[in-house]
Amino acid sequence: MTRQKITVDANEAVAYVAYRLNEVIAIYPITPSSGMGELADAWSAAKIPNIWGTVPLVVEMQSEGGAAGAVHGALQTGSLTTTFTASQGLLLMIPNMYKIAGELTPAVFHVSARTVATHALSIFGDHSDVMATRQTGWALLASRSPQEAHDMALIAQAASLRSRIPFLHFFDGFRTSHEVNKIEYLSEDDLRAMIDMEAVRQHRARALSPDHPVLRGTAMNPDVFFQAREAINPFYNACPAIVQEAMDQFARLTGRSYHLFDYAGAPDAERVIILMGSGAETAEETALYLQQQGERVGVVTVRLYRPFSLESLMKALPASVQKIAVLDRTKEPGAAGEPLYEDVVTAVTEALRTGKAPFQHLPVMVAGRYGLSSKEFTPGMVKAIFDELKSDTPRNHFTVGIVDDVSHTSLDYDASFSIEHPQTVRCVFFGLGADGTVGANKNSIKIIGEETDNYAQGYFVYDSKKSGSVTISHLRFGPRPIRAPYLIQPGQANFVACHQFTFLERLDVLKYAAPGAVFLLNSIYPPDQVWDHLPREVQQTIIDKKLKFYVIDAYEVAQKTGMGGRINTIMQTCFFAISGVLPRDEAIAQIKKSIEKTYGKRGEAVVKRNFEAVDHTLDNLFEVKVPDRVTSTFSRRKAVADEAPAFVRETLAPMMVFEGDNLPVSKLPVDGTFPTATARWEKRNIALEIPVWDPEVCIQCGKCALVCPHAVIRQKVYDPKYLENAPETFKSTPAKFKEFPGMMFTIQVAPEDCTGCALCVEACPAKNKSQVGLKAINMAPQPPLRETERVNWEFFLSLPEVDRTAISVGTVKNSQLLEPLFEFSGACAGCGETPYVKLVSQLFGDRTVIANATGCSSIYGGNLPTTPWAVNREGRGPAWSNSLFEDNAEFGLGMRLTIDKQSEFARELLVALAPQIGQVLVDAILTADQTSETGIKAQRERVAQLKQVLQSLKDPRATMLLDLADFLVRKSVWIIGGDGWAYDIGYGGLDHVLASGRDVNILVLDTEVYSNTGGQSSKATPRAAVAKFAANGKNLPKKDLGMIAMAYGYVYVARVAMGYNDAQTLKAFLEADAYEGPSLIIAYSHCIAHGIDMRKGLEQQKLAVQAGVWPVFRYNPMLSEEGKNPLQLDSRDPSVPVEDYAYNETRYRMLLQSDESRAEALMKLAREDAIRRWKLYQQMAAIQYNGHGQEPAAGKSE
Amino acid sequence: MADLTTTYLGLKLKNPLVASASPLSKKVEGVKRLEDAGISAVVMYSLFEEQIVHESHALDYYLTRGSESFAEALTYFPDLERYNVGPESYLELIYRIKKAVSIPVIGSLNGISTGGWINYARRIEEAGADALELNIYYVPTDPQLTSQELEATYVQLVRDVRSQIQIPLAVKLSPYFTALPNLAAQLAEAGANGLVLFNRFYQPDLDIESLDVVPNLVLSTSDELRLPLRWVAILYGRIKADLALSSGVHSARDVVKALMAGANVAMTTSELLAKGIGRATEILTDLNNWLDEFEYTSVQQMIGSMSQQAVAEPAAFERANYMKALMSYDNRIIW
């Protein structure tokens, strides 16, 4: 039987099987498993049936814990049920996993194994999550590659049904889940052949049903629990053999043979490595290579890790083995060894003792850690381990892949060691996220894999920025299957493409090039001029490695053919033309076919435009005659300026240029603590255009600074005397602030940090009266301005900050004189969240602790290399931390509790020490009014005085008070997160924190989807909008979180939209902070996931309010004390049709385009939702209060 | 009762009241209601090639933007099975309307490229339209573009489309031509079976407080009838094409005027949008009554009866009329 060979990643390969073998799928998004759930949801929406002819029911839950609960329930009532998850998500499933296993329920969870957050979160792959489930009673089945993941997904399901043991099938997150590889696809007949229908029938027969009722999930007492727990043993004993039977059946069906433990290498191997996951493939390939060199080495791949079959392991190990290295892709600090190592040691010693071992003497067994958080694991590292095993006393508990200069655990390895087959072609592409490089390469891999006899592999590396991100694509293809789950190593690429000329200024792109390789560069300079524009290092490498050098001005071709900034198909055409993998004509035909397939349903115009780009490419592709000497007068730029702090220079700078792998252990903090204010050192220069200020037109309203998502546009008022040393082009105008007569005013842009989003221009209300197309802020090309504005920016920073006590911050204009302490984040250009976050930093940043839920805000707020939270000149600024996704409200509450307790304790100590400190100072501190900036400043001065006094006291309580004295100055706690957190996964905690009455400020950045993981639906998603997991349009209305919070009566609640009314937004933030109880602000945050022109984000906010879908209000419990209604509506009756707002956004529009009648039906309901909610608010706001309203929240903490 | 039947583009119509392109034809139900109200033919709302191209590019842009840039969010939207961003939904609507009504359905097309005009014209024909109206909407802003070049483009366009389709072809014109009769004759020569006078353009307005140029579409009034009335009267009998009068038709009297000037049909939309589709029934009743009252036996009897060639004083439609009007105006001031 001939099966289809297709090129897919493991997520798709696994989801294909899982979807077809289940009836109910409960999902929740988490990287890197989200793709499986998204596919399942999309297939379900498209009515694709499973192998039994029914369309699986896919339901999104509020958390992985919820998903596991739903899975448990569905299983108990007899459905074939699955889910997909990873990392923290898997941890949340653990309680249910115990139950499901304890009840002997067949099911399979598919896990793209990912690092569990410890000192830091990491979205990348290792086995720390899977290892945390090894005690639950689930079978753990590992895959090494996309093909194996595809196969094991089926084997797991078959074995689970037969054994009644639930299976966790796992494969390495990103390295396998996201690796595109050519695999043989199983047919639905294959799936049917492997599934034992009698087992399915039995599963259903065991289900809970009132027609044959049973009771499951009892509570047991000491008399029987133990025995009942042991009663399960026969099932575990039988399981390994059942799995092997399934593998054998699978081998008969497909020809691909697997074993619980698979050995590869020399039959007489003395040195053996045991490991599982993708690293095993690298190790196996390396062992086979070394075997050919005469080395007696081998590798055991662990497939079935639980139940652990001692007998099968012994069968796999060669009798000749003398030394074994067991590798774990996890770290278990404090353990005798990592889990797989401990299991192997136990098994080997037990087998030897019981005569089951193939050898007579106990081999030397050592443990090693590798590959945490997708750290590369290469043949060079494998060889280093085999070499280490040659030693009489090989190092134990070693690490490989890093330089550990602290504990000296790491093995040295030869980074240049390669086992790449000479017939395999290796290509590396540097691109921008926005230019479509990755998409084009995925297409290329599909073309090569599916339209030629070649095997092909693609893997893609992204940086952590959401704007201006760099991508590196690693492509391999050739006549042999590609079993190389590691990046193309430096010096190994036959083809290197750099799709952005400016990368050459800062990245060592050509380090990947092999001698004689091809170098393709997207260059605005023609072939006869490009050489002189290359840095010296690049020229030298081209000459030394004798590279064949091609250029194309892809942007010009793209402009001419209407492609804008998308150069994907152009560079793809160049790649095929140069690489020769296919004859040119055939390659172009295949590219066009692929374009049809990819873009066809988006319309003929899109296809036509891409075709034109392809057709215009080759005439613009030129080979460059390479000179024989270096002529350039400049070198590659340093990652950061010399004046950057040492930590930034030595630790963060290498990360910025993709050299972080080379950092030794000693360069990293021991506990995940990092300095703030580091983003200012990473000058990314990603804006093509930046704002330019026109002082003549400016009305000094502050709106541009307020809305700037990246804090790159700022304003200051200052004494004219400072202008004496101003740079020539520095602009200034008399300040129009009543508080600052005679002062000067400047709006300045940070040219190298701006993303060019133009939100400031949209916000600017001042138009040039002689030419209304111009405003007080206008966009202009960045390169000619870069240097002068950089100098101006430096000068601007040197001007003194405004005295916070000198102004009332109650107006937008004044608020924007406050220094932002959140700057230059990696958020999307035009982000709708960050202006709110920045406002918090301006208003309260110097006295704020922030608890940040996982999500976009934790990524642009805390993803290395550099972070945006900053400090002022006094060294104060927001202290920030991210705990988890689900617990952020509680995390923030904990911070509040500390502040409350420590300040209480400090006050107690203050009273106790009053005789020694002096009653006047003590009284002043205890009775200080800290409701204003002036009051806070005065209190800080008192505390400084107090500290001086305390230092002279000998009383041990004085030392203690010294530690706590800062808590005597008012602190704010801001709990920040997105709607996925607040409405879904963290809602229970958020509700409890609101109910607690404590003084916390909760800011919900409501984008109405899970933005960070790619736009999955949340309970904040509005009716009629399309989102992932709501592909047919959300059919239920948005949850009204504000209404729920108002029900408490003592919670300050505000709904704001900066684009509708910035003054209302500002007022809400100030009132929330001032309110001495829980506050909740729900902020409309336009988002890239809405599919809007991000420049129009503020306009959409306004329309949302005017259409009634986002009424803005403030509910201030303090008003009820005054006998007033606490609810104040800050917007007017809906005046714009909902569709006039909604159909500006792709999320709504795409439903109209795909299913007009459903779109219209949902839109009608959405209109009704808006009207109904507005009327309800109106009624609430109209209630007469008589002065007997709610008590203020203070003191309600019980 | 008078015979209301007329012919337009070779189509035999039960009366001369035709619904011109408007949102009323965006639903099958809307067209059915027009038919029920007595409308004799309907011109579909226009298929704008520019809009199709724009929607297609916009969809592609927004589905692609931000994708493959960030490891956690390789895309931001689910990839739906299909998108109706091409002309398909328009074509399907024609097909469904044709199934649902018995009155002729005239497709309407506004293209931006030669390929687009021809391609979409063919597909509108294939979808079952009884005729096609080319809605040539172009505002020339380039000082280098001459009127001759522009007119030649129009004529060539009609020729190209005519050569590709079999169904009757009408061209909807703007009033802004220096020598309209000449262009009309050229278009007829190139294969236009009918001319529709005139297209009403969106006329932008200026908001002098916000300093924005704002779109402003106001419905027509009976006063606007006079411009097409004059030109229908002038063209009638001079070119080999049917004439349809569009703009300013709000009452039976307006219909009568249109017919007397020489139009085969009178097209109305604003009146129906403002007062409801049922207004068509009233107009037709009024028309019948008027014909009876003034003892006309058929509509045919009056078509062109007051065209320039038919009236006693042809100059009344020319410049002299302007002068006379001014004088009468002045007289009134003096009085």
TrEMBL record, chain A:
Q: Tell me, what is one Gene Ontology molecular-function annotation carried by this entry? A: oxidoreductase activity, acting on the aldehyde or oxo group of donors
**Family according to the record:** Belongs to the pyruvate:ferredoxin/flavodoxin oxidoreductase family.
Q: Which cofactor does it need?
A: [4Fe-4S] cluster
Cofactor, how bound (note):
Binds 3 [4Fe-4S] clusters per subunit.
Going by the UniProt record, its keywords in alphabetical order are: 4Fe-4S, Electron transport, Iron, Iron-sulfur, Metal-binding, Oxidoreductase, Pyruvate, Transport
Pfam families, sorted: EKR, Fer4_7, PFOR_II, POR, POR_N, TPP_enzyme_C
Binding residues for pyruvate = T31, R114
Say which domain of life the source belongs to.
Answer: Bacteria
- Chain sites annotated for binding [4Fe-4S] cluster 2: C708, C754, C757, C760
* Name of the featured protein: Pyruvate-flavodoxin oxidoreductase
Residues bound to [4Fe-4S] cluster 3 are C828, C831, C856, C1087
- In this chain's numbering, which residues are marked as the site (Important for catalytic activity)? T31, E64, R114, N1012
List of residues binding [4Fe-4S] cluster 1: C698, C701, C704, C764
Cited Gene3D superfamilies:
3.30.70.20, 3.40.50.920, 3.40.50.970, Pyruvate-ferredoxin oxidoreductase, PFOR, domain III, Pyruvate-flavodoxin oxidoreductase, EKR domain
InterPro entries, per database record: 4Fe4S_Fe-S-bd, 4Fe4S_Fe_S_CS, PFOR_II, Pyruvate:ferred/Flavod_OxRd, Pyrv-flavodox_OxR_EKR_sf, Pyrv-flavodox_OxRtase_EKR, Pyrv/ketoisovalerate_OxRed_cat, Pyrv_Fd/Flavodoxin_OxRdtase_N
* Annotated residues for binding of thiamine diphosphate: E64, E833, C856, G978, D979, G980, W981, T1007, E1008, V1009, Y1010, S1011, N1012
Which part of the chain is the 4Fe-4S ferredoxin-type domain? Answer: 689-718, 745-774
Which terms does the UniProt entry file under GO BP?
electron transport chain; response to oxidative stress
TrEMBL record, chain B:
Q: Which GO terms describe its biological process?
A: 'de novo' pyrimidine nucleobase biosynthetic process; 'de novo' UMP biosynthetic process
The name this protein goes by in its record: Dihydroorotate dehydrogenase
* Record keywords, A-Z: Flavoprotein, FMN, Oxidoreductase, Pyrimidine biosynthesis
* Keyword Flavoprotein included in the entry's annotation: yes
Pathway field: Pyrimidine metabolism; UMP biosynthesis via de novo pathway
Single GO MF descriptor: dihydroorotate dehydrogenase (fumarate) activity
Q: Would you name any one GO CC term?
A: cytoplasm
Which organism does this record belong to?
Bellilinea caldifistulae
Keyword Transferase among UniProt keywords: no
- Cofactor(s) the record lists: FMN
The protein's Enzyme Commission number: 1.3.98.1
Residue limits of the Dihydroorotate dehydrogenase catalytic domain? 84-290
The record ties this protein, via CDD domains, to:
DHOD_like (cd04739)
- Taxonomically, the superkingdom here is Bacteria
